[in-house]
Amino acid sequence: GDVGAEQQRRRRQREMCVRGRGVWEVTGVRAWSAVAAEAKAANKNVHVGRIFEICVDKNCELQTSDSRRKYKGRVVFQGNQVKDENFEAAMFQEMGSAPATMEASKSCDFFSLLPGHRGQQADAESAYTQSKLSSGIMTWVRIPRHEWPEDGSWDNIPDPVCPLILALYGHPDAGGYWEKHCDTHLCDCGFKPIPNWRSCYFHPELKLFLIVYVDDFKMAGPAANMQKGWDLI
Length: 233
Known about the structure:
Number of helices: 5
Radius of gyration: 21 Å
Shape: elongated
Largest sheet: 6 strands, mixed
Oligomer: single chain
């Protein structure tokens, strides 16, 4: 009984974290056959894939009694098995991202070692799902059956799919949308892109050097200005 109650609690937490963010639109559920037929009739492209859950033992090299060792779960999109309305391999915009290079990271380390400077790192929370999947081609997702509504409202829908709204990790274009979103936000905060060095920024007033590697942020500069920089971001 305790095990069952714990499973229900964790399931509710997953629903709050994923559905609560509006990653996919549950109320827009439809049968995939109807979605595909409608797209063909309108001569439009649609994509369909599936989402699945993964769980890892984070910091598994530590002792089991160490509080830093924990199970971490996430929901991802299976980007290597996406089909279009004709059940052919889907074609994407190829919005390749350009994370900071190793040279940029070493330069940031050097900047942090100057007198009166320091360096810090942080990561963005739920980075990819901060941006919308704004592609012109709508993507639909198949949800694992154990995540279907408990009221049975999906049971009579053949192959139910929901519209994917946010750039869920695993989608081939998700990294590009996140990078565009991140760049816009940093520029709004006063950080200036460094020419010819993608994902690297400098704040001229605070004298902060910032690099972004996917969803990891590494910043260096005067110790007195570090917290000001993080607060802006």
